[in-house]
From TrEMBL:
Domain FIST C-domain stretches: 218-357
InterPro entries: FIST_C, FIST_domain_N
Full protein name: FIST C domain-containing protein
PANTHER family xref list: BLR0328 PROTEIN
Organism listed in the record: Pseudanabaena biceps PCC 7429
Residue ranges of domain FIST in the record: 24-217
Amino acid sequence: MKIEQCRWTVNQGWEPNSPNSNQSAHLVLVFGGTDILKTENYPQYFRQIYPNATIIGCSTAGEICDTQVTDDAIVVTAIEFEHTQIKGNYLPITKTSDSFAIGAKLAQSFPTEDLVHLFVLSDGLIVNGSDLISGLRSQLPEQVTVTGGLAGDGSRFAETLIFWNELLEKELVAAIGIYGDRIKIGYGSLGGWATFGPKRVVTKSQGNILYELDGLSALELYKKYLGDHAVGLPASGLLFPLSLYNAEGDRSVVRTILSIDEAEQSLTFAGDVPEGSVVQLMQTNFERLVDGAIGAAQTSISHMTQGSPDLAILISCVGRKLVLKQRIEEEVDGVREVMGQSTVLTGFYSYGEMAPTSMGERCELHNQTMTITTFSEQ
C-alpha cells in the first residue's frame, strides 16, 4: 500500500506540497471545513489530479492530519493498493425517515463476493444514523464489517457536505466497498464519558426525536441540567450527551443532540432514542477522553500479531473537541503512541461515528467516541 498525504490551510497553502498528478491512486479521502470546500471547484480539481481514483470525503468539525488538528483546512490522503479492489456508490437522502431504506439500497448495490468491509460517510444532519446502519446490515453478509461517520459542520449544525467523485453536495450517503483477502481491517471505538444524575425512562419519542422523559418535557429537563449552558443549545448539548442503555441494562451507546424544537419541546439526536429505553446524562474530563482514544487505538490493532497498520482513519466526535479545546491534539498524540510512527493518520471530527465497539461485534452508531479504522495490506 502506497500513501500520499497533503494538507491545505489558509496561512500555509498546501503542505508539504500541492497534490501531484497521480494516475495510480485507487482511493482518495478528502476531509475539509464546510466553507473552505465550497470556495473552489475542488471536485474537478481533484479529479484532474487523481483521474482513476474513487474520491470520497465530507465536511467536518475539524480535520486530522498526522497528529495535527485543524479547523477549516483540507486534508487529502491518496492510497494505492497492491492487492485490494475498491468499489463505490452513493445515494441521495432527503428525509430522515428514509434512512433505513437508503442504507439497505446502498448495501444492495455492492457485489458481496470477496467483500470484506464497507466504509460509509453520510450527511450529518438529515440522517438517522441508527436506521442507516440497520439498513446496511440488513443486506450485508454477517462477515462484512462496517465503519464510518456522519459529516460535520463545526459547531454550527447548519449544513454538512459529502464529497463523491465530481460531486460536493448535502443530503448524500456514500460508501466504499473493500474487496480481497490481502487486506486486514481493524477497528475500535471508545468514549471516556461518565454518567451522572438519575436514570430516566423515555416516555415519548419517535425515531431519533425525543419528546418526554418520565412524562416530562425532555427539552425542559435538559435545560434544567445544563443551567447557564442551555442558551448555547444545540451546540452546548454536546458537553452533556445521553447514555442510552440496552434492554438488559448492561451496556450502552451515547447519543448527542443535533437540533432542538422549541415549539414541539423536542430534541433531535443523531440516532434512535426508543420509547421505553433508559437514559442518563453524561459528562467527562480531559484525562478520560485521552484514555478513551488510546483504548480505541489499542482495540483497532488487537488483531495484528506484528508490525503497524499502513493507514488509520480517525473519526472523533465534535463534542470531544469542545471539551478538550486547546488540548485536542493530546487524543491524537495518544493514538500515535499506540500505532507507531509508520502509520499514516487521517480523519475528522464528526456528528456521529459508525463502528463496532470491538472486534467481532456488530456496527452501531456512536456519539462522543474516538472511532478508528485501520488498514493493512499483506
